[in-house]
């Protein structure tokens, strides 16, 4: 004799097996930190552990910092008409309190120390220059007095000292152009709030100003002329500028509006928006040995010798992709191009198109890191660096779709995602009663909570699961179970 509870359990099991799978929003995928070369990989994990953040934050900040140190010292050569510079623009996206800023500070700390040492050297050079200028003034006056009786060459004016810079922060494009002339190997702009960077553009709204054009040229290390307020202009032949900063989700929506997207500004920025984690106390920071190895690596990248042009000025050493690596990269490139062709969203298409060049840029950075760590000189981009870059760029392609989906969602979708994040933080499974008691907005109303869970199910975030019915029979207990870990949370 078959019991009623056995039949009910069989029906529930069959339903669970035969229902078509639901399709939730793109879920977060962990950053492939294993694709990073050493010692960057160890450093990224150490920063993530010390700050209680996802390795995606420290990885993106570290990649951009390394790119800023390479700058115009090297470039990736695809073919004679396609050269990619070592330039990365990046945004760490997260709400206030998600420990974005500490990650950025740790990754760039060695450059701050180098800046302080260079600033002291510059101050000493200024003092010496003042003495030399006074001496020059006396020599010039003496020379002029002698010109009545003899003709000789005038004394040479002492050259103005130039401050060595790598790191800059709150800077206008006019000042940046001047700094690039003094530091032709490139600069790294670090902004704790990227919104300030975009808002600083002169009359950028509506595309009427010239600042945006200048910044976009710096993404490709292209020539650009900046007009000065007092007259004249500053010409930058290769303005290599990497940029890294933090931004809150709501600010990202507001600042990078239609005009900024149409200009291709956002498409050039690598985005990562990991799920939030509680900022629990950590009793230790990044180990001293790991921090020292990171500083040594950055200093080694800064010491990479650039090439020299016919005028004796520095230019990037172009590293070709070697034959074996080129075969793998071309295969990936064509598959990526077909994916772009199938994409209907114009913003995502623009972002994906930039990732093609970014794959070469990251491979170039990895090759420079690998040879720098081994004390060698880079001559070409090898298969290992290409493979690492492809793996990371594929991650950014997925993350781009996820972030744009979050940016474009409506109020109802955002509310559902908040609710899913709340459930995920509690193990990914709740009953309607749990939800009614746990969230103040339901006020203990289990029916309202169940309705909210039904909407989550309809949206594809998960499904109701039913516990097997016991021998006594009765109604099966139900719990809502998330299908996958949800994306980042935001207010």
Any low-confidence stretches, pLDDT <50, length ≥5? Answer: 1-24, 203-208, 485-491
- What share of the residues does DSSP label as strand, in percent? 5-15%
Shape: elongated
Quote the average pLDDT: 84
Query: What's the number of extended β-strand segments?
Result: 15
Quaternary state reads single chain
Largest sheet: 5 strands, parallel
Number of helices: 16
> What structural class should be given to the helix and strand makeup?
alpha/beta
What is the CA-CA span between the terminal residues? Answer: 56 Å
Which radius of gyration do the C-alpha atoms yield? 28 Å
Strand order of the largest sheet: 4-5-8-3-9
**Considering DSSP H and I runs of 4 or more, what fraction of the residues is helical?**
40-55%
How would you describe the overall organization of this protein?
The protein is about 50% helix and about 15% strand. By secondary structure, the protein is α/β, with parallel strands linked by helices. Strand 1 (about 70-80) and strand 2 form a beta hairpin. The protein is elongated, with a radius of gyration of 28 Å. The two termini are about 55 Å apart.
Brief overview:
The chain is α/β, with parallel strands linked by helices and 491 residues long. It has helices spanning 4-18, 40-51, 55-70, 100-146, 173-182, 194-199, 211-219, 249-255, 258-262, 288-302, 323-341, 346-373, 383-408, 411-424, 432-438, 446-458, and strands spanning 71-79, 82-86, 89-93, 167-168, 187-191, 224-227, 233-236, 241-247, 269-272, 307-308, 314-315, 317-320, 429-430, 462-466, 478-482. Strands 4-5-8-3-9 form a 5-stranded parallel β-sheet, sandwiched between helices. The chain has a 3-stranded mixed β-sheet with strand order 2-1-12. A 3-stranded antiparallel β-sheet has the order 13-15-14.
